[in-house]
Records
---
Amino acid sequence: MKPLIVANWKMNPLNFKQSFQLAEASDEKNVILCPPFVFLSEIKKNIRKAEIGAQDCFWEKEGSFTGEISPLMLQKMGCRYVIIGHSERRNYLKETDEVVNRKIRAVLRESMKPILCIGEKKEKTKQILRQQINGALKNIPKKNLSKLIVAYEPIWAIGTGRACGFKEAEKTRIFIEKLLKEKYSFKKPIILYGGSVNSRNYLDYITKACFDGLLIGGASLKPGEIKKILKF
Ligand code: PGA
């Protein structure tokens, strides 16, 4: 199966023109473009092969929640994926596993696919990942979980240029896969790697560490880089 590439643009770029250029460079099958909310609908109209995803959402359908975007709104505009629990949100917005759990439920309710981000700061990798997964999936019926995608993103590797070595990443992937299979009855979970992926290291995570795809931040903002990565 072709690897899934999630392009997480975070709070970039600053204008429509640049966002179109980026979208054009990344408009390939199996690519999910996750631009800021304000660009979503225009990008959706202008791409032919890629799909769009959101970087976050709220957990309610509608109502008095100033500043929030509902999963139903995203679904109605053609989003099929929503990133949930990115470490930057856990850090700057203080999102807890409980909040992540509510958001995952809300995304599943609208039949979209949540991309659950997990990752450790420094050490105790297994303990932290287990806690994040169990917190995020708490009391969600197993039969509802088939759409879930998990992105392993060690926090120390995000945006630092210090990507996780593929052997270490593979060990962690196997741990996550085992947990999802044994505790949550997944047959074949989809697990992505994220954290300083670039055109020189991306293949290792797919071919050597056997991830199902990549969650790419910085390199997805450079048309030259993303084009190279999408060549395979
Ligand atoms: P990075 O970001 O590729 O710039 O490290 C990845 C992410 O935060 O999703």
Note: Residues 8, 153, 158-159, 194-197, 215-219 surround 2-phosphoglycolic acid (CB under 6 Å).
---
Amino acid sequence: MNKLRLKSPAKLNLFLKVNKKRPDGYHDLTTLFERIDLCDDITLTLNKNGTIGISCSHPDVPSDSRNLVYKTAKILKDSLAVKSGVNIKIIKRVPVAAGLGGGSSNAATVLLGLNRLWRLKLSLKKMVEIAQKIGSDVPFFLYDASWAIGTERGDRIKKLSLPVKLWHVLVVAELKVYTSEIFGALNLKLTKPSTDVNILRCALKKNDLPRISHLLLNDLETAIVQSHPNLLKIKEELENLGAVGVSFSGSGPAVFGLVESRQKAENFKKILKKRYSRVFVVRTY
Ligand code: C5P
């Protein structure tokens, strides 16, 4: 085997409770992740000259050491003294710096892929340890799970086995939001008391859309809207169209509406496309 073609999916956070700031500058949080079918395509091709090459046509994706995918390959190569190299081609569909975990997912996908291509025989536990060094959202994407709860930095994952699949319409404003800035602007005293994430988990288990919508939470919302007030308008538009529930994903700017069916999601998309260029119909994956 010298070539692998892989899907690298995005995520939504249906629940994101920030519990406290930690001495290391990160925040302890409780989040509920949903994997969605908006995916990048990644091709890994073995090379014998020992180099790590990245190619991606998207202008906002660097192909050097700033790229999480490069970092992942480099950590594996150096720590395990791998002689082979790899050429990594990324076809980007997931908006960059949008709160959808695109870069983190790419890193996890490459970690899983290189484990096979370079025959590293790393356990999931070992891959999670490596993923935690790359970013807080990376471990979630290592699990073969549509749903999971993340605690600590969001990097301690418990898979959920929920049979439900949800439809969403997703709007991503044409701006990049930096997670560190949003966490930096967060005032924990202003966050609302929230329900336990397990209540949402039960609502998901019952596929109770009104209840799920009522329980959507993102503690970063105030900080996101303070930095980018126009984003509130997108939220309101989705609500006015009739989405059952609306929330930001991660640190934004992605806003998703929960809708009852594909048909409704497509109808909303048609309307929203007149004003926004990045509108997607997505489903649990
Ligand atoms: O882990 P990652 O590199 O994706 O995090 C980006 C930034 O988001 C961190 O530098 C930190 O400022 C913030 N962050 C945080 N608490 C978390 C996750 C991220 O404060 N649990």
Note: Residues 173 and 253 are 6 Å apart (CA to CA).
